[in-house]
Amino acid sequence: MATHHDEYVFVDHAMYVYDADHGERLLARRSLPGIAGVRGVAADIRTHALYISYGGYGGGYDGSLARYDLLSNRIVWTRSYGTGVDSLAVSRNGARLYLPDGELSTDGIWLVLNARSGAVIARIRGGNGPHNTVVGASGRWVYLGPRNSPYLSVASTATDRVIRRIGPLYSGVRPFTVNASETLAYTTATGLLGFQVSSIRTGHVLYTVRFGPRFKYDRGTFPYSAPSHGISLSPEGRRVWVIDSPNSFVHVYDVAGVPRHAPRHLVDIKLTHALSGDQSDCAQDCGREGWLQPSVDGCLVYVGDAGEVLSAVTYRPVAYLPALRNSREMLEIDWRGGMPVATSTRTGLGYPRRSPPNRARCAGG
To answer: Dihedral (C-alpha) 114, 229, 321, 49: value to the nearest 10 degrees?
Structure first.
């Protein structure tokens, strides 16, 4: 029985589903009434649940969380917590959600929720400006990225307590990812055109990588504070992809030798569609800052706010998704026999026992 690979892209009041097996043709546009200002998306295939955080992101602006059933294609419930919301993550067993209360919040709290009901069961204080969240491949640790703190927090999913802080980093934590063995963290930061590599075990920064003098970051011409607002590991963990929003590039580095050796530059990919201006029909936080998400099989990389789909083999654009030009909220869900069987996260992570993509497989051969 064949597996179908679908890419989901979220805009205000709707989600678009694209067929990754047939040139990213549009399969469906599904209405999401009342859902605007999407802050994060996550899926759990066991319960065929899709979670969408949306609305205000702290600082007196409250948001909400919706659970959507992928089989019935309907919203099951929405919950509000009297706080902002931001980019969430699901535990590996699908039982818990980790929901930051917003980058404009000053309390540093991630809500731990019962995934079935949305009820609050714990709180984790992870740092000022709760923003991005990743659950590692083992499921033992959840990584908390506070926008206004130079430390990436690591919390135990068993105790809901922070057990380590990584840093100090260049400045406030922006998009980040971790490898499959959960020994290395790859982080971007406010004001840094580039990325950093840190040891999760020691909490120390190992390398700071900048893209070089050819690539400039001028706040006068690029008004957003995170010039590298997107970083992803290839699924096998041997390459890291980093966005360069001011120059509309994606840079790729070989990280197979890390930590013994620094990341090695591979290629610079010029985007056809510039990361500039604002998303259309957007309620809030609409600047095209960018985002990166690899496909589950590692063959493709989706570029949020540009709309482009890049080949991980040839490093060339292979498709364009109009909805993705106006969104940086996306993930993959794979189907077999009418049931979801695999999903990506919104952030590209390293996964155990994955092999690098090859031309034949990525071409469908």
So the answer is: -10
pTM of the full structure? 0.97
- Is residue 71 within 8 Å of 91, Cβ to Cβ? no
- Tokens matching residue 41: 């998306």
**Residue 311 backbone phi and psi in degrees, to 5:** -75, 130
Angstrom distance (rounded) from CA 291 to CA 175: 8
Q: Classify domain 40-166 at the CATH class level.
A: mainly beta
Q: Which of 136, 131, 171, 132 is nearest to 151 (CA)?
A: 171
Measured CA distances, 63 to 36, 79, 164, 168 (Å):
10, 9, 29, 30
Tens digit of pLDDT at every position of the chain (365 positions): 899 999 999 999 999 999 999 999 999 999 999 999 999 999 999 999 999 999 999 999 999 999 999 999 999 999 999 999 999 999 999 999 999 999 999 999 999 999 999 999 999 999 999 999 999 999 999 999 999 999 999 999 999 999 999 999 999 999 999 999 999 999 999 999 999 999 999 999 999 999 989 999 988 788 899 999 999 999 999 999 999 999 999 999 999 999 999 999 999 999 999 999 999 988 888 999 999 999 999 999 999 999 999 999 999 999 999 999 999 999 999 999 999 999 999 999 998 877 788 777 687 54
Got the DSSP string for 143-164? EEEETT-S-EEEEETTT--EEE
Total number of residues shown for the chain:
365
Q: Which two tokens stand for residue 109?
A: 């709290």
Two tokens at 104? Answer: 């404009």
Token readout for 261 is 């050796």
Helix (H) or strand (E) holding 180, with range, is none
DSSP 21: T
Phi, psi (degrees; rounded to nearest 5) at 248: 55, 50
Nearest to 344 by CA among 331, 363, 354: 331
Strand partners, 5: 334
So where are the chain's domains?
Answer: 1-34+168-348, 40-166
Distances in Å between the Cα of 333 and the Cα atoms of 3, 4, 50, 188, 340 are: 10, 9, 10, 26, 7
Task: From 286, 214, 200, select the one nearest 246 (Cα to Cα).
Answer: 214
- From CA 45, how far away is CA 38, in angstroms rounded? 21
